[in-house]
Every structure is written in C-alpha cells, then in structure tokens.
Amino acid sequence: MNLFIASLAFSVVTAATLSLAAVAFSLQFAVSNIFNLAFGAALTLSCYAAYFFFSIVGIEFWLAIGLAVLFSGLFAAGMSAFLVGPFIRRGASAFVLMIVTFSLGTIIDYGLDGGFRDNSFTLPFGGSSLAIHAGPFELSGAQLVVVALAVVMTAGLAALLHRTRLGIAIRAIVDNRMLAGASGVPTRKVTTVAWFVTGLVTGIAGLALAASTSTVNGAIGDNYLLLIIPAAMLGGLGSIWGAIAGSLVISLADNLWGVFVGTQYEVLIGLLVLMVVIMIRPGGLAGVISRGWGGT
Amino acid sequence: MPTSVNSAKPVILEIEGLVAGYSTVPILHGVDLDVREGEMVAVVGPNGAGKSTLLKAILGFLPVTEGRLSVNNWSALHRRPEELIAHGVGYLPQVGNVFPSLTVAENLRMGVYAAPKSFDSRCAAVLPLFPGLSVMLGRRAGVLSGGERTMLGLARALMSAPQILLLDEPSSGLAPKIVSQVWEKLVELRLSGIALLVVEQRAKDILALADRGAVLVGGRVVKAGPCQEWTLDEVGHLFLQHAS
Amino acid sequence: MAYYISTLLVLFVSYAILGLGLNVQYGLGGVLNFGYYLFFAIGAYVGGITALGSDKGRVPALFQEIYAWNLPVHLPYPLTVLSAVVVAGVFSVGVGLIVLRSVRDDFGALMTFVVFLTMFTLIGAYANLFNGYIGISGVPSPVSNPELWYPILALGWLAISWLLVGAVTRSPYGRVLKSIRERPDAAAALGKNVRHYRLSVFILGNCMAALSGALLIGFIGAWSPLSWQEAETLVVFSIVIVGGRGNNLGVVLGAAVVGVGINEAVVFLPAVSSDPGLIPSVQWVLIGIITIGFLWVRPRGLLPERKAKWPWIDSKPGEVSEGNLLRKLRKGEARK
Ligand SMILES: Nc1ncnc2c1ncn2[C@@H]1O[C@H](COP(=O)(O)OP(=O)(O)OP(=O)(O)O)[C@@H](O)[C@H]1O
Ligand SMILES: [Mg+2]
To answer: Could you read off the pLDDT of B83-130 as tens digits, one per residue?
Structure first.
C-alpha cells in the first residue's frame, strides 16, 4: 500500500512533464485539425537548442534555457505559418498533412543528428540536492520545480484561453474556423500565435524531460510520443483538463506497471490505453471530438 | 439591370460577372448583383444553385477566378474575411452560425474582435434588439435552441457594426413561429438602415419582404429586379426550367 | 562492381515491392499506415529465421549463445518467404481490426504510428522475440552464386507482385476500393462495407511489405532494429508520392528515383572522416525535403494516376446538397 501511495505521488511528478507535452500536442490538433507527427522531434529540438546556446555559444545556463524555450515557440509558429498553414489553405487532406509533419520530423531528427557531433549530452539542471526519497522513487529538486512549473503553465494557459480576447479567439477557431474568420477574427494571425504558445509549452516540456533523464539523445522526443499520444487521446483532443487527466492516468498506469509487473513490456501501456480508447470511447474523455463538432 | 426604387442611394455591395467555385470546379458562372444602402435584397434559388457559394465567395472564403466585387467602392476581391468585416460586411452562415463551446458573451466578443474597446457600447446597442439573449450571456452557445442560435448569430454579426449583412438562410430549420420572429428582426434591421442580402429557401416570404430579388439557378442570375409583384408560380417555373 | 550492381538491383526490387504494397493501401484504398515498415521488418525477421532454422553454424560465434530462437527445422526457399507473408498477414488482421475502427481516418493513421513505435521498442528490448538489438545474421542465400542469380530471382518476385497488384487494381474490387478512397460516405451509402474493404487492403499491402522484407534478407543476410528505424517508412511514402500515388508504374519509377537514386547519390558526397554519420543524415534530410517538396509542387507525382471515369466519384468530397444529386440523377434519365 505504501508503495501504491508512493507511486501515486511519483506519478504526479511524471505526469507534470507529460501533461505539458500532451496539452501542447492536443492544442495543436484542436487549432489546426492536424496531428503533428513532428512533435517528438520538436521536443528533441528544444533540448538541442538549449545545448547549443549553453555549451556551444556559451550563454549562461538559465538564459540559454529561456532562449531555447523561445526558440521552440518561434519554431512552432514558423511551422504553422510556413508549412502547415499553406498546405491547409491548399486543401491538403489530413493524411497529406500527417505525411508532411512526419517528413518534417525526420528532417529535424536527422538534421540534429548530422548537425551536432555529440550523440548525447547532459543539461546541468542540478538541484539534486533537494532530493526526496520514497521507496524506490527519488524526486530531485529539478523535478519538483517541474511540477510547480506545470501547474503555473497550466493555470496561465487556462487564463489565456478563457480570460483574454486572443485566447477566446483561439477557442473560437477550434470551434469553427470559418465562422471565426467571418466574425472578423484574423484567423491566420491567431493560429500562428496559438502555435507559438504551444511551442513555448513544447519547449518547456522538452527541457523538463531533459531534466528528468540524465542524458539527452536524439530519440528522447520520439520515444516520449508513446506516452504523449495516448495521454492526449485518452483525455480528448483539444481539452486542457482532459490532457492533464490523461497524463495522470498514463503516468500512474506506467508506474504501477513498473512496480507490480516489472519493467517488462512496460512500453505496451501506451498502445493498450490507446486501444481501449479507440474501442470504447473514440472521442476520449472530453474534448473536441466527443463534443461532436470536430469534423474533418 | 432594372432601376430600383432606391436607385438614388449609394451602392454598398457591387458584384459583376463573378465566377467562383470550389478548387477547380466553378459553381458561379458570372453573377451580377448590387445592394444599395438600407435595402433588402433577396436571393432565391433551388438547392445547389450556388447561393451559399455566392456569399462565401463574397467573403473571400472561396477563390474568385473572374469578375469584380466591391464594398463601398473598395475592391473586395482576394481579401481575407476579416478585412471584409472591417469594411462593414457582416455574415451569418447557413450552418454553424455560433461558436458552440463559447458563451453567449464570448460569441458576441468575437464579433467585435478588431475593436475590443467598443464591446460595451456595441452590446448596449445590439442587445436591446435581442432581449432573449441578454439573460443568457453566461450560457454556452452549444445549449441554445435553434432560434436562439440564429438570434445570437445575428447579434454577433451586428457587433462589428456592419453596413450590410449577408444572411444565409436565416430561417432554415426553425419552427414557423420562430421564422416569423426572424422576419420581424430582418424588417427591424432594415428600418434601422442596415442593408441586407438574404439568401432564402422560403421564396414566398422573403420576396414579399425584400425590396429587390434575384433568382439564382445553376450559378447564374436568371431574373432580377423589384420583387413584390413576382408570383410564386413564375419563380418556381424558373427553378425547374433552368435546373436541367 | 558486379556485386554493386546486384545490390542495387535487389534494393530496387525490394523498394519497388514495398512501394507497390503501400500504394495498394494508400493509393488504392486510402488507408494511411505509418507502421508499414514494421511489416517489412517482420517479413525480414521471419524470412531470416525460417531460413536459418537450427543452423547456428553460420551465426558469428560471439552471438551463438544468446540466440533465443531455435527452430528445429529450416524451411526450403519459397516456404521461408511464404511463412513471412503469412505471419505478417495474421499480425495485420489483428492490428487492422483495431486501427480501422477509429472514428476518423487520421486517428487510425496515428495509431499505426504508435503501433510502430511500440513494436520497435518491444522487439529491440526483448531478446526472446528476434534477438533484440543484436538482431539476426548469417541468413543463407537460397541460391548459389547470389551475385548473379539473386537479382534475377528478385525480379521474378517483382513481376509476380506487379501482376498481382495490376489485377487487383483493374478488378471490380479495385474499382470499389477507389470509390471508397474518394468518397467513403457515398460508397457506404451504396452498401459497401467500407471497413472490410479497408482491412483487406491493409492486409494485402502489409503482406507485400513482408514479401519485400523476406526478399531483402535473403540477400543481405542480417537484420536488426538498426535497419528499420521509424524514418524508413518515410522512404516508402516518398517513393509513392514522388512516383505518383495510385499509379503502379509511377511507384516503380519512384523506387528507382528515391529508393535507389537518392541512396546512391549521397554516396558520392565527399565523406567527412570526423563525422561518419553525416552522410546518412544528409540522405534522410534530403528525402524529407523531397517528400514535402513534391507534395507542394507536384502532389500527384511524376506519373500521375489517370482520372477516374466514374462521375460520382469525380467531385471533391465536401458539402453535397441534395438538389445537386437529384439534378444529376435527372440528367441521367434524360439521356436514356
Ligand atoms: N466544399 C465543396 N466542394 C465541392 N463542391 C461543393 C462544396 N460545397 C458545395 N458544393 C457544390 O456547390 C454547389 C452549390 O452549393 P451551394 O451550397 O452554394 O448551394 P445552395 O444554393 O446554397 O443550396 P442550398 O439551398 O441547399 O443551401 C452544389 O452543387 C454543391 O454540391
Ligand atoms: Mg446554401
């Protein structure tokens, strides 16, 4: 039982990072109605950006981290404005956009692979001094910071989406892009800004991921997709709270499996959850699809 | 084009030889139409005639391959929808006329996106026209009834203080009693000086209300002019004649 | 030099069959499968293991002990390929039944991506399945003097695949598939069971991928997760898109241009001795750019598919108004 409670607490920690990523993935889907298969690569990219600014350019660490997050936001905005947006306006199908983002992901992954000599590196987040031990679990200071950060980010995002004109416009676009345009919302601009915001969140998620693993390598983001996609789908695409709930469930399942079954076949959890979602409730717990107006 | 009763009034919306459609398939084959200040113009036609397409093309949602389009002498071709809204055009689509997950107040706010500071003053002007809405400002639009949605859509379109409203079948899917409320609202809007371009299935009702009418069949205007005298028979005949 | 040409030929055939199979799924049936390369990998593993049997003599001594599988017999040649196809087919049924249930087609596609990532990790991590990250090696060639005969054998398989795919495309079944691709709603309304049709192309395409995999391992003799990373699927998509989605000849051309051409073109880039990984990276980046570029500039590929001849699938999906259908129906009557 003690172990159960410990894994519950630990799940909150792992869910913090996961929920940031799942929220970003989910919002991108909601705003542009596409699955961004370059999402894993974008996570990796933010880690490499931090590494670049810190180790190669030699900027002070936390400043480099901030720049990396900013870069991640700009990258997502650019991706929306110059790649996804033009394809959507041409009437490209959902399939074509998946292939386009998949290609972009490959370009990023191998661009980083070829562009950086080092196959793996460490980002010195430090903070291990503040470690908490509970059973087999250890929480470092950095991880606790991540939890706090996730809470702040989520609250900020919710405030943005519900309290500001821009945020309401983002939700309006999620609801009905055409009507938003016909109401006078500059949909392209708002979409780009929305992607910028998701990019910032992606960057923070990527760096949080780097903080929780000792070394970063080129596969860090893509491997994480195995948890992100099921978490976002379980929660229901387009819903912040759904993505958070989905992340909690996935993290808990992951940790319980690790404790009671062993790490054998742990990788199957995401797929199993996804299968259950698709079989039982294809719209997820909440979100765009289950509300019935997602449409293609 | 026959001279209308309002011919002295300035033209707000002018369409000449408009050719437009979906990707490569043209649906409109050269449409001429104009709307003058404070005038109600009705567009009727059979299903699939291109009525919705016409409004979407005006707003810039569809590629226009030929023709001219101007709003208050400002060329409105190849513009973004929000630019048309900024130039005094309002639009109520045929389907999906509200943002279902936004509250009523948020829906209205989207109508005045470009001028957030005037939200309060615009609300003060628009809401009295729709007394029903003022009591449900906090409700999600997704739970409103069909009639309430149409009213909210109209109110949202009015929030941008348009000179002309493009309405796509505002009566569709509504009970007869609600439909007559919609008609009343249109008359009220027209009296308040807003020009209306109304696409409708209910030809009889709308032709009786409008100043001028246009019959659109197969992407072409086959009859246009003052419409009070038109009989349903002759209009219906046009629908079938050109349909094949 | 002769060996180099044989290698290119076998590579070409392998990519061509892969492309044809993906074209059956994506080009003909409108099913998007980001896990496609998984079935190629399964084909290679099964084809390799059945050919090896208990014949560990060919396995490098270092790895002999950790080889988990131990088939009592090894199968004679065409049976190795056949078993690869059957295993992949059976696995496809399971995956397809779940994936094709999704409410939206792109959910299904996303799920195939997750299936791939999961299986990749699983197969790599668990040695009991296919020897984990070490993979299999020492697979014997089915022919003596493979340098000469294997390309010919491979071309034979390509001919069989070509005929099969051509027959499927031209058959009434193929026409139904195209109509489903263009207008699933309309096809369903005409009483076609869309999900069954899609499942069938999913299986057929994956079986062809397995065939291609079994074919390749017979020549290269070794297979491990390094050979089938997630980006490999992109090459096959690139082949279909560059060649011409829906056009079999185009796909074969795509296999030559993208599969073989780009792979070989980068060989001529000046090597950077300090960074040996650079050239493969350039190659992947190039393929990604080409794919996006073609989708933008020439989305129908080098050899576009011929336009469909059925008016009811000609129109683009989107709003259909009832009056429109009626008009079209009436039009038909008038002509009679
Ligand atoms: N997204 C689309 N893609 C291709 N064709 C379309 C699309 N939307 C509509 N059409 C076609 O364009 C033609 C005109 O459609 P439109 O919606 O303008 O008709 P309408 O006159 O408004 O009819 P209704 O009275 O039924 O609303 C129809 O033949 C329709 O099938
Ligand atoms: Mg219409």
So the answer is: 999 999 999 999 999 999 999 999 999 999 999 999 999 999 999 999
Instruction: Inspect the interface and report whether the beta carbons of A175 and B102 lie closer than 8 Å.
Output: yes
- Structural domain contains residue B131: yes
The two tokens of residue A185 are 């919302």
* CATH code, domain carrying B224: 3.40.50.300
Residue A295: closest C-alpha in chain B? B96
Q: What are the sequence ranges of the domains in chain A?
A: 2-118+141-280
Closest-CA residue, ligand 1 atom 8, reads C319
Please indicate, yes or no, if residue B2 is contained in any of the structural domains.
no
Class of domain A2-118+141-280: mainly alpha
* Residue among B22, B23, B243 whose CB faces C327 most closely: B243
CA of A89 to the centre of ligand 1 (A): 19
CA nearest to A293, candidates B46, C197, B102: B102
Q: How many domains does chain B have?
A: 1
Residue B3 domain flag: no
In a domain, B4, yes or no: no
> What is this model's ipTM?
0.91
Ligand 1: residue whose CA is nearest its atom 19: B48
Cβ contacts (< 8 Å) between B23 and chain C: which residues?
316
Ligand (nearest to CA of C315): 1
Report whether C301 contacts C243 (CB < 8 A): yes
CA C137 – CA C158 distance, rounded (Å): 24
Report how far Cα C310 is from the mean position of its chain's Cα atoms: 28
3 state SS of A245: helix
Question: Hey, what are A72's tokens?
Answer: 């991640």
pLDDT at C247 over 80: yes
**CA of residue A239 to ligand 1 center, whole Å:** 32
Give the Å distances, CA to CA, from B33 to A285, B55, B177, B208, C193.
49, 12, 31, 19, 46
CA distances from C307 to B23, C241, C242, C304, C310 (A): 16, 16, 18, 9, 9
SS3 B90: strand
